[in-house]
Amino acid sequence: MNLSGRSLELFFIDGRPDGMLTAEVFNWTGHVLRVPRTQLKEGLSRPEAAFTGVYILLGEQDGRAQAYVGEAEDMRERLRDHAARKDWWDNVVLVTTSANNLHKAHVKYLESRLVEIARDVNVSALENGNTPPRSSLSEAAVSNMESFLDTLLMVLPAIRVDMFLSKKRDVSRQAPERVDAAEPVFRCTVAEHGVNATAVLRDGEMVVLTGSRVRPSWAGDRKANTTYFRLHDDLVANGTILRDGDGAILTRDYAFSSPSAAAAVVSGRSANGRLAWVLDADGRSYAEWERDQIEGTGT
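RE: above sequence
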């Protein structure tokens, strides 16, 4: 039994998956409202829009995802100003509490922490010029805000806001034994390009391990319908992939959502991860290993 599971309630206000929605978690005081800019009038008419809270503007600029994190004691007034002055955003997420019991110091703390996290994850450009300083809170209040933030960071990816979802994994947590004996270990090699990467399947993610040799630059077709080349570029830019002579090395454990995503970034081109990754122990492909795992399941 998974005792750490949480129950998330999504309410699609107008019955459309891409329209306004609210998100709440059982036994959490937070309230999240996502509003497309095309429905801003309707969104600002809701009472929570006038609450004290933090908000996230989401959109694109020059072909790359862009965001802005802000806070206000009356978000309705602040968003009216952003609608008049900022053209690039097309969605906004408003984070409040159902009882409107966040105050100015709370939301300034949350704003600062969200900007810190977004800069560390570095998957979306931030219009925020600087990371705002954290407000001065008591030890108890900081603990409460960090607990609030933990749940918020679970909710946001569920409503397709992934800019705070870090795929980096803490190597020190796994030291000295970075790989559990029960975890399958896979290898991806492309000898002519010096690729020799090791990965484990952990908590449903393909985690490529620190020290893996990977392709230093994307060699595949950038016009193909894939976002993996952008991810490769971002990992080079933030130092996760460190170029080393003619090759490159992974500087930290990094989690990918699928074997194909991991194989593409490692090899620098689109790849079928189910074939590219082979079990280190016996050479079976990921596809063969998966087939053997599910054979007889439920019988």
